Amino acid sequence: MQETPSREAQRAQAFMRLGQPAALWSSEGCLLVYNLAFGERFNCFGHSIPAGISQSQFMDKVERSGLLVRSVTTASDNLPRETDILAGRQLFFSDGTVCSIEAWPAGGGNTVMLCLDVTETNRNARALERAKETAVTADQTKSRFLRAANHDLRQPLASLKILIYTCMAAQTAEERDQALHAMDVSVAIMEDLLGALLNIGQLDAGKVEPRIQTFQIATILERLRVQFDNQAQEKGLDLRIVPSKASVESDRALLERILTNFVGNAIRYTDTGRVLVGCRRYGKALRIAVYDTGCGIPEQFHEAIFDEFFRVAEHQIYRKHSLGLGLNIAKRLAEVLGHHISVRSTPGLGSVFSIEVPVGDIWNSSVGEPEINEKIGGEFAGLVGLVLEDDVNLRTALATLLERWGMEVLTFDAFDDIEHSLAELGRRPDIIITDYRLRGGIQGTDVVNIINDLLDQPCPAVVVTADTSPDLIASIRKQGFPVLIKPISPPGLRVIMHNILFEPDLVPEIS
User: Fold this and answer.
1) Record: fold of 137-363
2) pLDDT over 90 for what percent of the chain?
3) Overall average pLDDT of the 303-321 stretch
4) Is 329 exposed, middle or buried (0-12, 13-18, 19+ CB in 10 A)?
5) DSSP bridge partners of 387
6) Topology of 377-506 in CATH?
7) Residue 183 three-state SS
8) I need a surface site. Which of 11, 181, 282, 445 has the fewest CB within 10 A?
9) What is the pTM of this model?
10) Which fold has domain 7-117?
């Protein structure tokens, strides 16, 4: 008859079979026995862990072996004795595992210790902490965005208010037309600012991707003149913007945002004299500088003024006009663009803020200023454009624009029998401009594909849409169509048409 194991033997067997590393330590803190899992976890002792080794000797060997990255003693009210130095420790192993040592009193004054794997628990705790930090950062970003919006939109809004009054008081049609033109520019500036502010909101998240293009700096200089001319006149300042025909390579909206901050600050902190904006070429860079005869900034603050919310103490009188964000935004945008910003200033004499921008090739310009148009005028003469747009007013305006460029314009709005509609045109189009969403839920891209199936040679097309969804735009481009966002910019349309018809290698969608 087989003898039943004693209770003590059963406990010993259960101890040895434990899946978690476990060890029994004497009242003096010396090792009595350990299970297989404990020996495998602390495998730096060779074949076996020496019997009677103290906890301090045990930890010294483990730490010197490189088995651990670090160990941390956590506060605990349940530590059995001072000799139990392992109890309450968290051990960070070199294989990435994190274990927590838990201890309980055993019979005879001994202590049993379990090495519990808390890797996943620690990982979840760190993820929770990171999520908390992300939430705090997002909240700060939101607040910063709202402050920036308040700061940035006030300037064109102030100009717009003055222009509305000027328009109402105009004595002649010419004065009224000039005011309306300036109002149109101010509204466009506000629209661009809203887009730029969205980018600034993403700046904190590191998601701003500059859209580098070549354009003439004159486009920004003219907009600066319209935006700030009235503000300068109200303060009795002479605002002079020196014309320039230089071309630069940058993100036009972000560069304009930087220069807007420079000019706005120059006017804000200048009581008498003038503000001058000028450009000068230095090698392969164009330095755009804003000079003022304002109060100036002490040299010890030349770096600090680019910090968020920083204001020079003696200039607190201007606090109600500034949130201290403009120069910080300008610096961060310049870093994104890779442009160098510099400042020279002397108290009582004025300041010079400048930015250096790479010089660009005028023939790669993506903005059609008059100088460029005159040089390449007539390039579309004799070509045939097919306009697919079911909004009558927009179709008429677009047709008028193309005709001014010397094109013959064809159109149809019967999409139920495209083959018949195409045959009635009588001529093969050289380029198609189509709205993405046509009447009856028809997609312009589908119509273009059907037309190209009917033609002997495919016809290039531009898709126009008011939907700014990134997924939709990516989908259209994936089909091989360049996209223009409504409202259509004539210079932008001219450039994309030129590239499609004459330099298709410049159009990634169709390359």
Assistant:
1) Heat Shock Protein 90 (3.30.565)
2) 21
3) 56
4) buried
5) 411, 433
6) Rossmann fold (3.40.50)
7) helix
8) 282
9) 0.41
10) Beta-Lactamase (3.30.450)
